[in-house]
Every structure is written in structure tokens, then in C-alpha cells.
Amino acid sequence: YYDGCAMVAINGDIVAQGVQFSVNDVEVISATLDLEDVRSYRGRENHPHLESDPKPCYRVRVNFSLSDVDDVHLPVHQPVEWCFHTPEEEISLGPACWLWDYLRRSGQAGFLLPLSGGVDSASSACIVHSLCVLLCRAVEDGNTQVLDDVRRVVGDSTYRPTQPRELCSRIFTTCYMGSENSTEDTRTRAKDLAGEIGSTHMTINIDLAVRSILGIFSAVTGKWPQFGVNGGSRRENLALQNVQARVRMVLAYLFAQLSLWSRGRPGGLLVLGSANVDESLTGYFTKYDCSSADINPIGGISKADLKNFLSLRGILTAPPTAELEPLKDGQVSQTDEADMKMTYSELSVIGRLRKISMCGPFSMFCKLIHLWKDLLSPVEVAQKVKHFFWMYSVNRHKMTTLTPAYHAESYSPDDNRFDLRPFLYDTPQVGVALRWRKVAPAGAVGAITHLI
Question: Which of 114, 164, 253, 433 could anchor a disulfide with 133, C-beta 3.0 to 4.6 Å?
Fold first, then answer.
């Protein structure tokens, strides 16, 4: 998806600017200019060179005109101030246009999103609602191509969208997939958000499916895995989390294929993902879980930017959690940042240093001890850098299964198309220890510092 815009410029000044993010296939802008201004500008710029290398400047007259005889009465356009979108506006508009482009090309009838009540899935949901706003505005402005595409998507040749919430109910389905490890708070937040944007919302309990799968495993092996809080090992604990996440992915695709059929409507739905860039970098997601989708509108955006984009207070103040471990006194006992041993704010800084500044472990450490000098000691910074690169390296294999995402920033994650660096590393040699030695090779002046 190309997110540029049409513009008209003369002598370094912008006199007309189009719309940067639009659902229109074609956009034409125009401006009235005086071409004599171009001739004068070029003459002024070239004047210093004429003294050393004098060449005559010829004016060629032709027997046709680019305008009519009344153009002398048209006022020329004056320079305008360039309109820059804020990052939050770009998150709202860019992925929305990209989703529309993909939806109408795919021939599907809308989107389905597993809505957990957290920042990531809520951001994906709000982007779909932003798309509905853009579509309604385009139809109101008389865009017949958008109207035809909307009618084809919803399967109604007489339909005319006027309200974004009503359009959202037709093309967008959300589902909350709760379990015995889920809290009532997340269920309520997901339901309330669905009500605000107008999506068709479902609440699903996955406990029966999880127990059925574990029952098959137990029938074959004679063993029943336990969570860590119940005395289980780390492998048991991780496997029990993964089976819940993967069940959600299977159910998401099942409902995407058949939910419209159950309502007597034709077509299927595209499954939307909601894994942010920080989770992709650290591998903090289950392979083939509900982050595995058809497309992901926020896969190239950091958690920090998503929080700035989302203005839903209840969702923003909730601790990020996958809710895959048993509750403790009815409250969440597992949080993302505790599992990753770093905050999303720290990950956002690390992600930019890794990609934009091209930092490896040592150069990143050298930058962070200055950036975080008031917050962390050099030893604590070193531990975080080592831990990040260890997670980054051991989980690189997951990058090959990432859902195609909208790449909006220079810190976008590397998948098997966007970044061709290796996806499998010899992990014991990456970020294991930070220590220094000075090597003075023969003939060298000074010393070279190495990270080993």
C-alpha cells in the first residue's frame, strides 16, 4: 500500500497537496501557476555560471497553448504549509486503508478479530472502525467505486453505508475467547469496546476444547500436565499456555469461515492479528497461536506508539497479560513485562537501537548506559541487553511464521520477506557474557575493545 500523496510544487514551494491516506483509487489535484516564475527562477540560479561560461539562452515559441485565452485572469496559487500527520493519525489511517485494499482484493466479506480487551487487540479493532469512518465519508462524497466495493463486500446491491458503527456491524466480527484463567475485567473491556465501535461481538469459552486436547494427550501418555503454581515443571507450564493460545487460533479460523454462514450470509472473514513489533522482536508469542492470522494491521508498530494512539483509559491502565496461567485470588498472576523481564517502554528503545541505529550487544550497551544512567546501573543495563539478545536469538525461528503486517516505521520487525538476515542463530554465542579485553595487534596504535 502506497501512503504518499499527490502534490504540485514550483521553485521549491508546495502550492497544492493531496490526501496522504485515502480509499480513493485515483486522486487528481490541480493548481494555477505562472511558468514565467520558473524561467525567472532558473535564470537567477544559473546567473553565476554565465560569467565563466557565457551561453545564450533561447526562448522557443510554439503554436499551441497549455490553457485558454482567459488564463490571464486566473490568480496563481500561493505556497501552502505542508500538512504532516501525527504518528497517532498515521496509525489510525494508514493500516485502515491497507486493510481495505486487502479486503476488496481478497473477495472476503469482512474481518474477524480475537478481542482480548488489551491494548494490542483494541488497537486493531479501532483501526477497523477508522476504516468504516473513511468508507462512509467516501460514499458521502460521491465515490461510486467505494460504494460498489462496499456493496460487494456486504453482499447487498442496494446497501448504502451512512453510519460507521452500522457498517462496522456488517463487516467486523469480534470474539472474546475466555478461559478459567481469564478475568471478568478483560471480558467486560472487550464487550464494552465492541459496543462502542459497533462490531458483532461473541463471547467464547475455550475450556472444553483445552480439556479435550489434554484428555487425548493423557489417554496416550497416561500423564496430565500441571501449571507451575500447582507443582508442574516449566515445560508443563509452557505447554499448557501454548495449547490455550493455539486453540484460540483454531477457533478464530473456524468462526471466520462459518460465522456468516450461521447468520445466513454469504462469504467468509479475514482473521486479523494483533501482535506488536516488540513481541515479534523478543519472540514473546506462541508459534501458530491467535497472533497467526491472515493479516496484521499493527505488526510493524511498537507498544509505546500503540498506547499513544489508543485513548481508552480502562484498557490503557490494565496490565498487559495473556491470561494463560491460573488466577491468584481472582486476579491475574501473570503479566507480559514480568515474563519478558523488561518493560514495553524499554523494549521500544531497544528495538529502535537495534534496527535504526544498527546496534549489536556492545554498541547498544554503550548507548543505554548513558540513556538510562538515572534509572539503571551499568550492570542492570548489561543484564537487560544480554537478555534481549538472548530472547531475540533463540526465537528467531518464529519470525518465519509472522503474519504479513503493515510496515509503518523504520523499526519494523524482520519477517521472512522484510529482513533477510539469518533466522537461526548459534544461541550460546550470542549475548552470553559482557566482559572486555584489550587487544593491541602488532603495528596498531591504541587498543581495540571487543565484546566476547
Answer: 164
